[in-house]
Design a protein that fits this description.
Strand content: 25-35%
CATH topology: L-amino peptidase D-ALA esterase/amidase
CATH superfamily: L-amino peptidase D-ALA esterase/amidase
Strand order of the largest sheet: 4-3-12-11-10-9
Number of strands: 14
Order of helices and strands: EEEHEEHEHEEEEHEHHEHEEH
Oligomer: single chain
CATH class: Alpha Beta
Structural class: alpha+beta
Mean pLDDT: 94
Length: 362
Amino acid sequence: MERCRARDYGLEFGDLPVGTQNAITDVPGVKVGHCSTWKGDGELHIGHGPIRTGITAIVPAPDDLFTSKVQAAVHFINGFGKSMGLMQIAEVGTIETPILITNTLNVGRVADGLLDYLIRDKGLRAPSINPVVLECNDYFLSDIWGRHLAKAEVVEALESAAGGRVQEGSIGAGTGTAAYGYKGGVGTSSRLISFEKNRFVLGALVVTNMGRKEQLVIKGVPAGKLLQEYDPPRELGGSIIFILATDAPLSVNQLRRLAVRATHGLARTGASSNHTSGDVVVAFSTARRIPAAADQPVITLPELVEQTFIDSFFIAAADAVEEAILNAMFMAETVIGRDGNTLQALPLRKVRELLQARGVIN
């Protein structure tokens, strides 16, 4: 059966409307790009392959991010991760580079490639730059030990970044990742939040790599337990990366609170973060750009969303994350990796039968 997004199957997630693309790129100015590296088959030969990995790039806003930063916050659902750049975000509340997501052992090389791109290609001259690189572990399918990604792949992901439709499934950082024992990958979704004359967008993007098959829940249906034809390896079950973006004028503390709500969307799909999960949320707002060097000691903040109205954003975050996770699974195809290791695609026909039998969809 042809792969399609969860909403195309008649699934609905909450009451808020979705954006034009139902993607993180519905937030004005946000761009997403991918580089996928796919090479070889058969037995693992470290340094040579097979390779099933990649990079996903999220560009939070147009123009130079270093001189005109975006406000941001981070939340660690479980901190068994090797991501880079999060300490400074937590400390000062800004992002100053594109966000890259890759595999666990490639974080250093990808960060180096990003720095080289900014310094040599873009002419950035700053003694301190905070590259943001997040990770999931794709060792089950890929020669992760070969660390095959470097500047060329970073540049490809960044230069391909665009607005509009976002490619999902087994692509970019999701090329070799799992979800609930099935093939996972990249997924995205968005929500529109309106107050009188104001309308804001909240978008979510995830790279899945978490959960065991028996944990999978789809709209309240214990699908993982009911799908009997496939018995994935017990060793699967790792991390998930969340990116939340909005054009609403949220403060750093409000963004931190928003990031926490990604947990609720994850839980709806059945996961409980494991000991070895690096489950990280980065949330940012494009509403106000922060200059690298202010020319006056006191600055004027824009209007902020009043605290009593923030619940709509919390609801939007949970709904969008839940849908993004399922989009990643619905769009991902079966992948055979190193040593014949295989992650099966979620069987959409059988999932539809389960959901129809329980009245979730028609």
